[in-house]
Design goal:
2 copies of one chain form a homodimer. By secondary structure, the first copy, chain A, is mainly alpha-helical. Helices cover 56% and strands 4% of the residues of chain A. Chain A has a domain of 96 residues: Orthogonal Bundle (Arc Repressor Mutant, subunit A). In chain A, a hairpin with a 7-residue loop joins strand 1 and strand 2. The first copy, chain A, binds a DNA duplex through helix 3.
Chain lengths: 146, 146
DNA sequence: GAATGTGTAACTCTTTCAGTTGCACACCAT
DNA sequence: ATGGTGTGCAACTGAAAGAGTTACACATTC
């Protein structure tokens, strides 16, 4: 396993915030979200912090306060979640520079960087097809609890 | 950085094997490949081993022996390299299971698994557009040494 | 049989990540 | 204003993954 699970955690949290809102519970605390994740409130805040910067969620501070979606769930795509979290993609170049006097060693990095940029682009396009609302509806319908 | 650099190392090695072959040096040893990578022969063998299983490269053992492409460089795609190396994708679900009695916690994993499978598919399609020969020609032409 | 080369397991070192603790700050109610 | 509730963030811990390295067994050529 070569990736972190922040994207999964973030999507889970957003779906949960939306579901809670549909049930009239909004805003919702990090504590409540952490319960569903079987995790800790600090992790929830850590993951949600960049989403707050991106305007995907809004947060209040006092008692009875907590997290709320920054806009309607129909207009939050997984692409926005992904880019808010991952400035760099899941692809890594060499751990250290290869020999620059070798023709391959000299050109492989920029060449692969182009390939990786194309991969990021098609991934982003695919992620943009899914919204939080769509994903939540899908999982509630396709994988009902019980 | 959330990914390993094995894919980069493998593509680098394959390009180098092909370039050496074009220059009449074939097969080529792990030692020679490791030089260009500024790495170690053992790492080269570790990365190339699964490619050998997939038939992308062939290897001999005695003196004057080493690595050779398993088929022509025009017919080895980056997709094959990727799938030979990464049985699991770069996307991770939760570190541990979420609460199954929560509707979101119950359905989020299978739902996101579907999304990740779609992402793998579009990535594979994009990677299939590139071959070792094409990549090598491109980097030699676009990024000439000196 | 000696030299060359791969195969692989085991180890170290570093980095990264999830998990955790602690404390400062903000907000609301009384 | 005061105490309870909640987020913000820095720092620490423990576990896991990965690159790099060593060592040794095995295969092939001469």
């Amino acid at each position: 396993m070569s990736a972190n699970s922040q994207f999964t955690t973030a999507v889970h949290a957003l779906c949960w915030i939306e579901l809670a809102a549909r049930q009239g519970e909004s805003p919702i605390t990090s504590e409540r979200i952490a319960e569903s994740l079987a995790s800790h409130p600090v992790l929830v805040r850590r993951v949600l912090a960049p989403l707050r910067e991106a305007g995907l969620v809004a947060v209040g501070r006092g008692p009875g306060s907590g997290w709320r979606l920054g806009r309607s769930a129909e207009r939050i795509t997984l692409r926005e979640v992904y880019t808010a979290l991952a400035p760099g993609g899941p692809f890594a170049l060499h751990a250290h520079d290869p020999k620059p006097d070798c023709p391959v060693g000299h050109g492989i990095r920029p060449a692969l960087t182009e390939v990786f940029a194309d991969l990021e682009a098609v991934m982003a396009r695919e992620l943009a097809r899914h919204t939080i609302a769509g994903l939540l509806d899908h999982l509630l319908r396709t994988y009902p609890v019980g």
